[in-house]
Write a structure and sequence with these properties.
This protein is of the alpha/beta class and 333 residues long. The chain has two domains: 62 residues, no CATH class; 187 residues, von Willebrand factor, type A domain (Rossmann fold, 3-Layer(aba) Sandwich). A hairpin with a 3-residue loop joins strand 4 and strand 5. The chain is elongated and about 130 Å long.
């Protein structure tokens, strides 16, 4: 006999939870975490408005005073409700495109590195005004960069190019003969006048010892005010004493940067040790070209030829009355 389970139809069904009560309970539960937010935001707003009103009241009651005693008028900008509402509304305006003339074309790396170096303008400072970072004679020369050998001038018919020129000139007693000192002065002035302003120079006169203008062994810029002073100094040179050029060469090779060209002029016999002495000074760095000139007597001609040849310079013999006889870099007179 099968017994099937039977349900008690008379038992009441368990009550279903009220949806609204569930939502209300969740709302109450969530509101516990939102109460701080609802309290903090209005509190901050009230504090800021109160601070603003306090500042405005101070400015109105005690306005700032100008230096002349008048009050500074303070005005507060106000907006109507309609204007405030418009500020919150999204704008449908289409932004105006940028003016094409104001845009800058981006260059590719290849274009940046393929720029023409000749189009770059460089303002070179006076090469004789400052020392260089390199060792003796290893400084940069603007004439080398330009490829034209720098400035140009001539002294007793020997032309030379460079940026720094030293004139080592004999003013010994024998220079008083046949107006040699006058010939020297005229040729010095002509050579200095021919130098462009960006060149630098120094004149070292010697007899028993060496001396320079104002006893300062430094580079002078070849501008017109300096040339004016140097011309006056040249005009006061007098011939006296013996012939000892070694101290003048020592001072010349102490200069920094080193000279590009040295003009060495004498009318006397030089000692046989002078070429070796000059050679030793001229091997401490980049070689300086030394052009040699001898006045009147040919007694020291071979020594002067040797100094010019070993430095890559030129030699000239100048007879009395100042007519140079070209001899080349150690060649025939």
């Amino acid at each position: 006999m099968n017994h099937e389970p039977t349900s008690n139809l008379n038992e009441p069904a368990p009550p279903k939870p009220d949806v609204y009560e569930v939502l209300a309970e969740e709302s109450r539960h969530t509101s516990q975490y939102r109460k701080p937010e609802k309290i903090i935001a209005p509190a901050v707003s009230v504090f800021l408005h109160a601070l603003f009103l306090l500042i405005a009241a101070i400015l109105v009651i005690n306005p700032p005073i100008r230096g002349d005693g008048s009050e500074v008028q303070i005005e507060f900008a106000t907006l109507a409700d309609e204007e405030l509402t418009k500020l919150d509304e999204p704008s449908d305006a289409i932004p105006t495109p940028m003016d094409p003339s104001l845009t800058v074309a981006a260059e590719s790396p290849a274009e940046l590195f393929e720029a023409d170096p000749s189009s770059v303008s460089v303002d070179l400072a006076d090469p004789g005004a400052v020392d260089t970072l390199g060792g003796a004679g290893e400084e940069f020369s603007p004439g080398q960069m330009l490829g034209g050998g720098g400035a140009g001038t001539s002294f007793f018919g020997i032309e030379a190019r460079g940026n720094r020129f030293v004139y080592i000139v004999d003013v010994s007693g024998s220079m008083s003969e046949a107006d040699r000192i006058g010939t020297l002065q005229r040729n010095l002035v002509e050579s200095i006048n021919a130098l462009p302003e960006h060149a630098s120079f120094l004149i070292i006169a010697y007899s028993d010892s060496a001396f320079a203008m104002n006893d300062q062994y430094r580079w002078y810029k070849a501008d017109e005010p300096t040339k004016f002073k140097v011309r006056a100094w040249i005009s006061r040179l007098v011939s006296a004493g013996g012939t000892e050029p070694a101290p003048a060469f020592e001072e010349a090779f102490k200069l920094k940067p080193r000279p590009d060209v040295i003009y060495f002029m004498t009318d006397g016999q030089q000692t046989e040790v002078l070429p070796g002495f000059v050679r030793a000074l001229n091997t401490r760095g980049r070689r300086t070209k030394i052009n040699t000139i001898i006045f009147g007597s040919r007694g020291g001609e071979e020594i002067m030829r040797q100094i010019a040849k070993e430095s890559g310079g030129e030699y000239r013999y100048v007879p009395d009355f100042g007519v140079p006889n070209p001899g080349g870099g150690g060649g025939q007179p």
